[in-house]
Design a protein that fits this description.
Layout: H1 13-24, E1 30-32, H2 35-40, E2 54-57, H3 61-71, E3 81-84, E4 99-102, E5 110-114, E6 119-123, H4 128-135, E7 140-141, H5 154-160, H6 167-170, E8 177-183, E9 189-192, H7 197-204, H8 209-223, H9 225-231, H10 257-260, E10 269-276, E11 278-279, E12 283-291, H11 294-305, E13 311-316, H12 317-324, E14 347-355, H13 358-374, E15 383-390, H14 392-403, H15 405-408, E16 417-418, E17 425-426, H16 432-445, E18 450-455, E19 460-467, H17 472-475, H18 477-491, H19 509-513, H20 517-527, H21 556-560, H22 565-570, H23 572-575, H24 594-599, H25 606-622, H26 627-636, H27 639-654, H28 660-669, H29 676-680, H30 687-701, H31 706-721, H32 725-732, H33 735-745, H34 758-765, H35 772-776, H36 780-784, E20 786-790, H37 793-798, H38 800-812, E21 816-819, H39 827-831, H40 835-853, E22 859-861, H41 864-868, H42 873-878, E23 885-887, H43 888-893, H44 896-902, E24 909-914, H45 917-922, H46 925-936, E25 939-943, H47 962-978, E26 986-988, H48 991-1001, H49 1008-1014
Parallel strand pairs: 2-4, 3-4, 20-21, 20-22, 22-23, 24-25, 24-26
Antiparallel strand pairs: 1-2, 5-6, 6-10, 7-11, 8-9, 8-10, 12-14, 12-15, 13-14, 13-18, 16-19, 17-19, 18-19
Length: 1018
């Protein structure tokens, strides 16, 4: 039995007093000094891990004013505050040992859109893709393009002065900032915009902080203009973070925004922004140029730029190969055919063109392709041909692949993985190829592998050396390599920080700013005299205060190495999360992650759960507990003998006794176990897998809720209950029983048995059960057309008419369906951590299915989540002996000849598919299989992009989850299901999805097989 974790790192008394004082002052947002929130926000996308004292989630600007005013009370002047948006920084920008102020949870509203003047006003927590989705109907977009655009907040973009693909044409974030509203540390809410000299003179007369700031910046600009011009490199990615070179903008106006942009939360809290919008180009295309040598791709970029494209991005073979093994490749494979010679592609330049006139676009593309065709025989250029992607849809798919490159680099085998610490250097584009040659030699000399991609048109290339940060010797290379890269960038007139901000790397600011660094310190001191705002980054307010050091901040590797190797490997599904944050995806029509979208709580995300699991394993290891050994002990333990101890521990829990495991448990049980993370996360974090391992151990110490036994045992009980459906339904249907079940068992809206026995139904259809004896009786012709349908508890007993329809359709298509005898699949057991029982059920079921498969007849499943368990959960415990069961559409898609022969039997129809989350994220190509099957049979099938329906097996039936389940449904499914235009057109593959639409909107959606059956001509 695992011990309780009663002591973690306590919150300092000063911070607890501050939090309590905030609460007393009427702070309306969330105040979270709990260890779970602190742990989850201790990391970002960098190599660092810094435990904060607490997390504050302000509800509005008034809350922020309360925070800063209280921080200026003499008693609280040692309080440290660090703003945080999406938390996607690669250099620890938002990490702090003080208080994290996360503005993304509540301050995320789009306040005003002015289409005529092409601007928008937003709160700082608005996500970039959220903004662009809102203004897309008006033909407008917010320009700076980021790989993290689906989770990066506008506040975060402003604080890092973010830029990305297309920056040569569209510039950086500050180029599109019209006004900023900032809460200064004295409580002033200041709106800043470009000022004429007369307006500046008025402000300079003020005797408050606003006046002091404007006087100081004006004097720095006037007194040091020549030095600033000499010191700041003339780069597209100019030196941001107190951008002295742009105190005066191109029009000569004084612009405080150019200092605030890139300030990384060290000067104030930016709460709102008025942003310039651009007209979306109507047409776009990509020319994908392949190379046999990566250096050739870099050198060729300068030549390609002469054709005046919108942007050029470069990807190396390492990134490309990782993409090929990811879910994203299914959407872009057609644009990257193998080379005709079979030679391996070592680099690709993605050359983008945009235009508002299609003829103009085609002319631009032709100009480049003619150039490429003419030089095709010139081997010195290293080109290996090219492909074209026409139209916004195709182009966006490729950019989607490119955006995943950062995360994909972390998805390699083993413990040595690419990490960010020198990955956004910028040099003049004409120097880039030579710079990278030396950069690569530097890394090669250290015998390191690495991946490269980036914005060659701007002279920025992202390079991530591969290290095992748990190894102290490899960790030391961070300092050595960074020092060498700093010298190299200076040699080529470049910058260490070209795109992703300074953060902990601010250590090198004095080296780059030189004599101007004291002026940065003066700015910091004017805004933040007590060094409370994200201290140690960009500049300190006094010479006596040092900047952070890259090897002076705790790294994740230093914490992770406390977990024994055996334990680390046993929980590998969550250990390699690198914090890229893709699971914070804003898009409600994307599957990952429903619990995050439904709660907006970071502990309810894959990143949050992985962080908590690592911390929990570390805490256990520090107490001398081996969770692997404990798991074996739980499996051996006697239920009744351990019951007294579990009752006692549970009673103590109810009395309020603290155990960090309770916080981890709260996070884990909030997971829907949809496995979207396992399919979509570039690192392949698999929360349901390590969640089940945790639950097994947690419930070895504490009592399980009754619902777990009900859910886990249902598959075993339902065959018997199906013979007395009137009894089961009579218990489930009355309202007083539903209320009792909700309160006592923890289950609501439990489905009713159909009362139809498959035994009788298949006899009427002339269908036999699959057994080796029955199979032996098939003729050769029958066996050639035979297929075995594997049952699952949900469709066979709660949706029996669908199973009958599926079998009927197979018959009408000319097949000989056989029904596998029902045996529990066991997935519900696995989901809830009954791992011993699951292993038993899986072994029994697999033995039967493998026996049937030995006949050579294919096995297919009707319910996606249960069927995919055979290649997921089963494979993890059974390995190669896991039965091979195809999704029904995967099998049908391979039956094209037969389907074509039967196509004339079908009326034509137009339908729309709502796919199951597990299916569309873990078996991506199977969605296209449905479309192929429908097309062959004369139907059209459009796939509607939706997120999770909120049901996910039994999640939505559990009392504690009902409200979140319904909220998730409202995010994307509700509008689609209730849209009159979709009436009688929708079809859904998932049993749980169909149950949810019936429960909430009283809409019964058919399965695709039922749609096809209905389309057969009478």
């Amino acid at each position: 039995m695992i011990p309780s974790i009663r002591q973690t790192s306590p919150v300092q008394a000063l911070y607890l007093a501050f939090i309590n004082a905030l609460r007393d002052n009427g702070f309306r947002g969330d105040l979270s000094p709990d260890y779970a929130n602190r742990t989850v926000l201790a990391t970002d996308n960098s190599i660092y891990q810094v435990l904060p004292q607490g997390v504050i989630y302000p509800r509005d600007t008034a809350d922020l004013v309360k925070v800063v005013k209280l921080s200026q009370v003499p008693r609280f002047r040692d309080i440290v505050l660090s703003p945080r948006g999406g938390g996607t920084g690669t250099n620890g920008q938002s990490l702090t040992d003080g208080l994290v102020v996360d503005t993304s949870k509540y301050m995320n509203q789009i306040l005003e859109i002015n289409v005529e003047e092409r601007w928008v006003r937003v709160q700082c927590g608005v996500v970039k893709d959220q903004l662009n989705a809102a203004i897309k109907p008006y033909g407008l977009f917010f320009a700076p393009e980021l790989s993290t655009s689906n989770r990066a907040t506008i506040g975060g973009m402003i604080n890092t002065d973010a830029s990305g693909q297309g920056s040569c044409r569209y510039g950086k974030t500050r180029d599109h900032v019209l006004e900023l509203r900032t809460v200064l540390l004295d409580g002033t809410e200041w709106t800043s915009a470009p000022l004429a000299d007369s307006e500046l003179d008025v402000l300079a007369q003020r005797q408050d902080r606003v006046g002091q700031v404007h006087r100081l910046l004006d004097s720095i600009q006037r007194d040091h203009a020549d030095l600033i011009a000499a010191k700041f490199p003339k780069l597209n990615r100019c030196l941001t973070g107190y951008d002295l070179a742009h105190i005066r903008d191109e029009a000569g106006r004084f612009n405080l925004n150019n200092i605030l942009c890139g300030s990384e939360g060290t000067l104030g809290f930016i709460t709102e922004a008025k942003l310039n919008l651009l007209v979306t180009p109507k047409y776009s295309a990509l020319v994908n140029v392949n190379y046999r040598d990566f250096n050739a791709a870099l050198r060729d970029a300068a030549e390609l730029m002469k054709a005046n494209p919108t942007s050029i991005e470069t990807v190396d073979s390492k990134v490309l190969n990782l993409a090929m093994n990811d879910i994203v490749w299914h959407s872009v494979a057609e644009f990257f055919p193998p080379s005709a010679s079979g030679e391996k592609i070592q680099g690709i330049n993605l050359v983008e063109y945009t235009a508002n006139d299609e003829d103009e676009l085609r002319a631009d593309i032709k100009k480049l392709t003619d150039q490429l065709d003419q030089s095709g025989l010139d081997n010195t250029l290293g080109r290996m041909g090219y492909s074209l992607a026409w139209g916004n849809e195709a182009v966006n798919k490729i950019w989607g692949m490119r955006k995943k490159a950062v995360g994909l680099l972390g998805n390699v085998d083993g413990e040595i993985r690419p990490v960010p610490f020198v990955e956004d250097t910028a040099v003049p584009p004409e120097n880039l190829a030579d710079f990278i040659v030396e950069f690569r030699k530097l890394l090669d000399d250290h015998q390191l592998t690495y991946g490269m991609f980036g914005h060659v048109d701007a002279g920025v290339l992202h390079v991530r050396p591969a290290l095992d940060m748990k190894d102290p010797d490899q960790e030391k290379l961070v300092r050595k390599i960074t020092d060498e890269v700093v010298a190299l960038t200076q040699k080529y007139n470049g910058l260490l920080w070209g795109e992703h901000g300074k953060g902990v790397r601010s250590e090198y600011a004095p080296k780059f700013f030189g004599e101007l660094y004291p002026q940065l310190q003066r700015i910091k001191a004017e805004f933040d005299p007590y060094n409370q705002l994200n201290p140690g980054k960009i500049a300190t307010p006094a010479e006596t205060i040092e900047l952070l050091k890259i090897d002076g901040v705790t790294t994740r590797g230093q914490e992770d190495r406390k977990i024994p190797v055996q334990v680390w490997n046993a929980y590998s599904e969550g250990m390699h999360c690198n914090g890229n944050g893709l699971c914070y995806n804003w898009n409600p029509n994307d599957a990952m992650c429903p619990s995050w979208k439904g709660t907006r709580e970071r502990i309810h995300s894959p990143k949050g759960r992985a962080s908590l699991m690592r911390e929990w394993l570390k805490q256990m290891s520090e107490r001398g507990v081996n969770p692997v050994a404990e798991s074996a002990a739980v499996k051996r333990s006697n239920f009744l003998l351990t019951l007294p101890a579990r009752i006692k521990n549970t009673w103590q829990k109810k009395q309020g006794e603290y155990d960090f495991s309770h916080e981890v448990h709260a996070s884990m049980v909030g997971c829907l176990a949809c496995k979207s993370c396992a399919g979509q996360c570039p690192i392949k974090v698999d929360v349901p897998e390590f969640r089940s391992k945790f639950l097994e151990l947690y419930y070895g110490r504490y009592l399980r809720p009754l619902k777990d036994y009900f859910i886990g045992g249902l598959e075993f009980m339902v065959p018997t209950l199906a013979r007395v459906p009137w009894l089961y339904n009579a218990l489930m249907k009355p309202r007083f029983m539903q209320s009792l079940l909700a309160k006592v068992v923890g289950m609501v809206d439990s489905p009713l048995l159909t009362g139809i026995l498959l035994d009788d139904a298949i006899q009427k259809l002339g269908i036999r059960y699959a057994s080796l004896e029955n199979i032996a009786q098939l003729s050769a012709a029958e066996k050639a057309k035979a297929v075995i349908v594997v049952q699952d508890a949900f469709t066979s007993y709660f949706e029996t008419p669908f199973v009958i329809d599926a079998l009927t359709l197979l018959q009408k298509l000319g097949y000989v369906p056989l029904l596998a005898p029902f045996k529990p699949n066991g997935k519900p057991l696995q989901v809830h951590g009954f791992l011993k029982a699951f292993a038993r059920a899986a072994d029994t079921n697999a033995t039967m299915l493998n026996g049937l498969a030995s006949s050579g007849i294919p096995l297919i499943g009707l319910e996606p989540a249960m069927t995919l368990a055979y290649r997921g959960e089963y494979k993890k415990i059974l390995g190669a002996t896991a039965p091979k069961v195809q999704l029904v559409q995967e099998w049908l898609a391979g039956q094209q000849e037969t389907l074509r022969e039967r196509a004339e039997q079908f009326n034509t129809g137009d339908y729309a598919l709502l796919a199951h989350c597990t299916e569309k994220t873990n078996a991506v190509s199977s969605i296209k299989d449905w479309q192929q099957v429908f097309t062959t049979l004369g139907q059209t099938l459009k796939v509607i992009e939706t997120g999770c329906c909120g049901m996910a097996g039994t999640y939505g039936h559990e009392t504690v989850n009902v409200e979140t389940s319904k909220k998730i449904y409202q995010l994307s499914w509700a509008d689609v299901v209730t849209n009159p235009a979709n009436k009688d057109r929708l079809t859904a593959t998932g049993y749980s999805c169909r149950s949810q639409t019936k429960r909430i909107d009283n809409v019964k959606l058919p399965h695709p097989l039922q749609v096809l059956l209905a389309q057969i001509k009478s």
